[in-house]
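Hello,

Our lab assistant flagged a job as stuck in the queue for most of the afternoon. It eventually completed. Since we weren't sure the result was trustworthy after the delay, we are filing this so someone can double-check. Below is the sequence as submitted and the structure that was eventually returned. Let us know if re-running is recommended.
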Amino acid sequence: MIPEKYVSLAKNDSSKDKSGAFSLFDIENFIRRIIRNWYWFVLMFFLGYTLSWVYSKYYAQNIYASNLSLSVSNNTASYFTPNQSINFIWGQGGNQDGVYLKKMLLSRSHNEFLVKELGLFVNFSTKGTLKSTYLDKSDSPVFLEIDRKHLQQVSYPITLLPKGNDSYEVVLPEEGHSGNLYNYEIEGFQNIAEFPKPANKTIKLNEWYTSPNLRFKLVANPVPTSIKLDNIIVNLETVNQTVNGIVSTINVDFDKEINTIMIITKTGFNLNGTVNFLNKSVNELQKKRLADKNIINKNTDVYLQNSLDGIRKKLDSSALVLNYLKTSEKLYDIKDRDEKSLNKIKDLEAKKADLLSKVNSLNSIRNTIDSQNFDRMISTGAAGFEDGFFSASVSELKALYLKRREMASIYKPNSEPMIEINRLISEAKQGSSNSLRSYYARYYDEIGKIDSEVAAANSDLVAYPEKERKYLDAERGYNMIEATYNSLLGRQNEAQMKVATNQSDITVIDPAKNLGQLPVGPNKKGTEFGIIGGFLFLPLLFIFIGEVLDNKVRNIKELLSVTKIPLLGVIGNNSTENMLTVLQSPKSSVSEAFRGIRANVRFLLNENQKSKTILITSSIGGEGKTYVSINLASVLGLSDKKTILLGMDLRKPKIFGDFNIDNKYGISNYLTGEVSIDQIINSTKIPNLDVATSGPIPPNPSELLMSEKNIEFLDKLKEMYDFIIIDSPPVGLVADSYELMKYSDANIYVVRHEYTEKYMLKMITEKYHNQEVGNLGLVYNDYSTRQGYGYGYGYGYGYGYGYFDEDKNYKEPLLIRLRNKIQQILRKK
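-- returned structure --
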């Protein structure tokens, strides 16, 4: 933004518009920072790659998976295995047997049985130089069998070192032994008195190792292993830990095409371990399913046998009565018998007898439910029906009763959980009762119809004499009891046949096998990308935080868009300690920048004035205010303009050192009347440049600068010089410069790159737009050559073109050299 001539006079109301605000995050500077710190990203990439490689090779534990597929038949009618899914209870369809089996496979009771049966709470591993490897029990040459009656310390590594001749040295950790021990019988912890660290000991196979916190023996693996191990590390876990760990590694899915086929997957650190567990788990499940199915049929057989025993007695009694009537009353040969009506009555009463026996079976089922004695439940087939809804509701009711018994030891009777479980029990009980009532109603309705038909058939027999009717009644009673007996006998045969021919409804299609499957985890590529990405993210995060927290001015475009103050020029970094850059390096790019500032300052000045006063200030010290003052005065002096440089920063005198001038007498002495004006004006090596230093630090610098004598002093200098350059105090610290600006013709505000705080510019910006300060321009100082020049305000040629003195030492950045090399190669092709 090159200032227009007389810009201060041309300002109108639009110049009073509020200036903008610096952005919290500068994306351009953020990207520049990333490029500038590229080496951190390279370093972090190699560090992350190295760490991920070491982790993958030496520390990552491979995870294996094995699968087993099985088929579930849907012909089961047991209260303990069928359609018991709660989904079925509420009327939802689907593969209910499969859902129930899935629940069983993932249940705590099933997996706890396997943990105890297989001793899975004993974990084996071996340690190499850098990495530990988990072993399956079958991979170890010896098994560790604990004494479950003895308290054991869990999560306490036991190292077994082979010593030959079937002996192993037991090495325990130096620290970590504890008196908080686990009891495998009650599955809980108990405390014992403190004890010293158990000693290491060499034991032979089948010899007990006993200490306060351990008791075990080593048993040889009956199957010789081909793996030679230098050490075997054994860790004991609690049953609960082991069960939870196993359940979390099991996944059960259903085939998308045939939903009765289940696919069970087990993951683990050892492939053989997953294979053995899956096969054992399904084998035990098959046994349990078969046993559950037979419980109902056996209960039904016992119930029917008891019923048959009672009916047999009635049948024998009825036979005696009938024989008596035949022999004593001679009624065995009744003339003109209506065989058609009698046969009809016999058939009807046989049906009635069958229905009554079914009603009796219903009574038994209802009584079992009411008494909650589910282990004595009989099959619904004994009552003449198969109802999956009823079986599911009974199974759910049984589970809810068990759950309530468990909760009763934890919750109070009137607590919310107990109220909820009682509600669920009431709903399940209502569901089973409704089913039974429907069958009661059906059977009694059929019995009523049979009674009506029997009554109608009896009307045809009223003509028989009383004795003959008595015989016919006895015969009908016998036939009815006989029909009941035969019906019960047939159902008993059916129940016994089921027990004899029952098979598990689970059929294994593909058992789990060790086929040398590759590991399914960990995701080494994902881990590698994650580690590398995490390391690359660290410098990015620090740069981002630095950018957000950074409040320094770094972007010229943003500075101008926010302040809307004209820019007079951009000054590069002064690589030397000498402040007289224009004199010492006249051909440098920095010197050229000051010449550009000299040219641009005229746009702030009134050309009609004979003498021009230029005040230079900044926000705080260290921004280059004095440096700009010295070199701007030098440039003006070298251009044959009679110039004087005034050191009016009375609190912090500086200028005298750069010009080798004695600061014994200066402006402060003149303003106090100690010396004359001629005594404070000093000549320099530049013929047209004089310097008046600040002098000794006075006790009242503000009063001196604002005094009438200082104003008179400036008026005298205007008669003597073409340009008066005032090096004034920083406006962010004291208000002296704002008072001096009333007597200056142009004001230069120095902003230092990556040094000036953004908030410091608020005051000068507001005063400028409120027209409290006029003829103001910015000088951007110490702009780093690493970021390149090119803003075009008297300083934009850059390095590398042989134009400035610095070009002889210029070396292109690495990225630029790489780019040029690639372009050369491409041009050759």
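-- support follow-up --
The delay was a queue issue, not a problem with the job. The result is valid. The longest strand covers residues 64-72. The mean pLDDT is 82.
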